[in-house]
């Protein structure tokens, strides 16, 4: 191991080291995969858990926040009864992943003709060379940890020109207090199209989910991608999307976060071909003592790319909402058009919101902008509704729904957008019951 | 686009070696031994006849500094500084404490004349038409010492104390002890701690309760000696209801080696007081290949300590090889206000990492940030800023606008804002844009018969207007000239 070990480990770091030591020989994968795991764990050990001085993690100090790590999920859980559907009424195919293991008998793959779905274990055993192609570019301790311990998940392969109309969901379900390290892949060939959902739910337990999804979106492909993080109240969720998009491709991505005690959702999108368009949207709704962090990295590596980012966050109780965004325009990436907007709405005196929207620009013929706002519900608007006899809780719900809708509708998929708006309204209704009329 | 192409060509041809103030004054000087040690600090303190408490203060800072490491988070790159290779004190040899201007070394006076700084009280700033009888009091700091402070007597009549910090430590120890290090603690950061240990000279201003300072105060900093660092320390206190406007200018000779300038500026505004602090920073930026130039690592902070106080920072940054500077406001008093207006122009191989911090602690505090970055050549220009509202800062307001303009495809412009709100009623707005000069704006100007040079000048002037307007008149003129020199070719 060439990385220097830090002498002081936290309890969680010790647990992770033990977990890796116990599993390193039994984890699935070819020799190449095993070597990659060792490298990744060495990288993780060298850095340790991200902390306050790890700039991209400055608002989520895992060294302080992650006290313990539960044992790694071992094999398929017996559970056959799934939690309630988080998106009732939305028609889609479902790939159900329980505690990191794909369960075909619980899944429904109707309408996915021409698409191949493979268990990640098989890719690992075969040493598929596409593994790690996207995540490998990221310098992030939690992604390295996932690479070291990755064990489950699926790969969806949409060949060139195949247009899948039915949405497909990768439903992640965790059944108990375990740690899961899921790795998913999504490959969409040239001119292909896919509507994909990733959902995260679980039993009421202190589980920790670390999931990395790698995506390669081919030239002229069209992908709509929605993520719903509705994890159990005492869980930890660390999710990463690493995507590259080809020339003239169109990628729209929405992340809706309502669950988990501690969550971090990272999306890294790299422009690999010219004239591609990316729309990245987010809606966070947290309360109580929840901590929700969104990290976004957009890399305009080639000319003529366009990206739109719109993130909205609503914080109630003593919740902490965080957004860090970074648009990079590399030398030569002329005619790039990037616009990022972040808005935070604080519903209580003790909630907090931190934003760091960065622009890093090395080309002159570009149009880039970002904006950020933070505040509370506009008193005038509230008064207008109260004056018309609408109770306070309902008025607030109305205004907050309107605030979030802009980001949800940005995805540009009516059916998914509607289902997500229901989730948002449910959250507000639950909150509304807590607010005195 | 032809106009910009032409501009870029001309900028490349002329580049940064147009620096006007690169001459060296041949003057004998006295230096402390090279390197840094407790002895050197004792030497500096003794040179300045400082009381014991001051020496102890410096030594404490030095011991703390030895345990610190250089910050690396800024987007600037430079070879490691060898702090043992620097001289920490250099003073022109002349009669000790000249009583009047006549006793000052004529070589020095000639230097300031060349720089256009009026040291004779009857003079006014050169090159300003219609300035009439506007007067500016000047404190001239040459390497490590203050050479002369003008209009001292007249200011004294109004009750305003304006002198070098060395003099203040001797003459007004109570005021200095009360406020020195109260805004920027000695342990604040690597360079501020270094400054606390070795600071040589700088200005001290105290405006008593209810007094509106009758004239603009200004300090002109000049680095002349080779291999010396300049560590100035400025402390400005506006007592209840007072008002003062302070200007700062700086230049240095053209040398091949990099020189360090690590200053600390502390402002204290008590109840209802207002301080306006303007800087035109024109240190030597290095030559066209990026050789030489000043490392400008500065800590500037203002404390709006009393209710309804106001601190306003205005800066025009055109010089220095590397700038690392974040003039900040701590908005402690209820209803206090902080402002930051900045133009940062970088060309050649210059690196600028600058911005501000607005820390809202009091109720109904307001802040406003306007930052304009112009990057040309192979330079990098970063805005880095923090706006935060603490739990009790109900009704805090901030508006931030930072725009960047890129001239040429070899340069970079970056924006790194941090916004942290811990109070629901705090309203923060931030907007930033990056672009080049719009084709349609240029076309509009060209169509009306302007040359492309004139058009670019007009557009750049429009781009920075919000900030220029905030400068006192004398500086506005100088700032506009400076911007055109920095971007020579692009703004005619």
Structure description:
The complex is a heterodimer of chains A (437) and B (492). Chain A is α/β, with parallel strands linked by helices. Chain A has one domain (11-376). Helix content of chain A is 23%, strand content 37%. Chain A has a ten-stranded mixed beta sheet, with helices on one face. In chain A, helix 2 (31-47) runs antiparallel to helix 5 and helix 6 (379-387) crosses helix 7 (392-410). Chain A is globular, with a radius of gyration of 21 Å. Chain A starts with 10 loop residues before the first helix and ends with a helix. Chain B is an alpha/beta fold and 492 residues long. Helix content of chain B is 24%, strand content 33%. Chain B is built from eleven helices and 24 strands. Chain B has helices at residues 2-14, 38-47, 52-66, 106-115, 152-158, 165-171, 173-179, 190-198, 439-447, 452-468, 473-486; strands at residues 29-31, 90-92, 136-142, 145-149, 161-164, 203-207, 216-222, 233-238, 243-251, 258-261, 264-269, 274-281, 293-304, 310-317, 322-325, 328-331, 337-346, 351-354, 357-360, 366-375, 380-389, 397-406, 412-421, 427-435. In chain B, strand 3 (136-142) and strand 4 form a beta hairpin. In chain B, helix 2 runs antiparallel to helix 3, helix 3 (52-66) packs antiparallel against helix 8 (190-198) and helix 9 (439-447) crosses helix 10. Chain B is globular and about 65 Å long. The model of chain B is unreliable at 1-16 and 122-133 (pLDDT under 50). The A-B interface holds A 55, 331-332, 334, 344, 346-376 and B 4, 73, 391, 404, 406-436. Strand 19 (367-375) of chain A pairs antiparallel with strand 24 (427-435) of chain B.
